[in-house]
Amino acid sequence: MELLCCEVDSVRRALPDPHLLNDERVLHNLLVLEERYQPAGSYFKCVQQDIKPFMRRMVATWMLEVCEEQKCEEEVFPLAMNYLDRFLSIVQTTKCHLQLLGAVCMFLASKFKETIPLTAEKLCIYTENSITPCELLEWELVVLGKLKWNLAAVTPPDFIEHILHRLTLPKDKLPLIRKDAHTFIALCATDFKFAMYPPSMIATGSVGAAICGLQLDIGYCSLFNDNLTKLLAKITHTDVRNMGSVDCRLEKPRLKFWKFLYNKNGI
Q1: pTM for this one?
Q2: In whole angstroms, how far apart are CA 49 and each of 53, 88, 91, 94, 184?
Q3: Cα separation, 51 vs 247, whole angstroms
Q4: Residues near 160 by Cβ (< 8 Å), separated by ≥ 6?
């Protein structure tokens, strides 16, 4: 008898809606709303006394590893970091509670974006049981209260499909460009320097970095250097000068990511 593999993805994922992508009002509303969900300034200077930037980077790296191991949607980690930054910008927190806060933010983000969200018990295991499910649920209410239950934040992944839809790109390269753009966004979220940039700018720079990493043929010569920068800036109404600074800063995450792949897979 011939054995057939009938395994399918148990999670149903929605496809991009062409009506939403073609409607300029959707992109316009995202651009209008994005500033509402940014952290209120550099909180390391005016709010936090016990927590330092390197501590944020450590907990962010841990959160990213958890999301990758659990195969979360690409939107979960950037959204969780948005919650974390917004909370830290208004509430003074001790370093002993930082991992608990990170777990709560992942818990909330997965509920908002995942079909099957992360469980409190599973997140506690990832902290080596340094926190309990009861503590996590108690802090969930604290974080929700401080964020005023406003969880529908605009993050860089929200702009990816809108940007790609407005570019003339080879269809066979789109999955790779999309994947690389999400990778750059995740790496940017681990670095506090990028927290002050608007999500649209991070998304624009990430797509630009992803496209520049490909070897496109001469038929797509309009997507090189200044032409690409100007086109991307026009789509999201981004200042070209600011976008250039984002692209420059993306080079460091790019090298880190390639080094990580080399060490992990021997590429």
Answers
A1: 0.82
A2: 11, 11, 11, 8, 29
A3: 28
A4: 178, 181, 182, 185, 203, 206, 207
Q: In angstroms, rounded to a whole number, what is the distance separating the alpha carbons of residues 88 and 82?
A: 10
Q: Which residues contact 122 (CB under 8 A, 6 or more apart)?
A: 70
Question: Are the C-beta atoms of residues 102 and 123 closer than 8 Å to each other?
Answer: no
Amino acid at site 36: R
Give the tens place of pLDDT for each residue, 7-49: 545 556 677 778 888 888 988 898 989 888 888 778 888 888 8
- Rounded Cα gap, residues 105 and 101, in angstroms: 6
**For 189, phi and psi rounded to 5 degrees?**
-65, -25
**Spatial CB neighbours of 166, under 8 Å, sequence gap ≥ 6:** 235
pLDDT tens digits for range 57-87: 999 999 999 999 999 999 999 999 999 999 9
How far apart are the C-alpha atoms of 186 and 75, rounded to whole Å? 9
CB 40 within 8 A of CB 90: yes
Q: Give, as one character, the DSSP assignment of residue 214.
A: S
Decide: 242 and 198 in contact? Cβ < 8 Å: no
Q: At what angle do helices 174-189 and 199-212 cross, to 10 degrees?
A: 130
CB 101 within 8 A of CB 84: yes
Cα angle, residue 67 at apex, residues 197 and 137 outer, rounded to 5°: 95
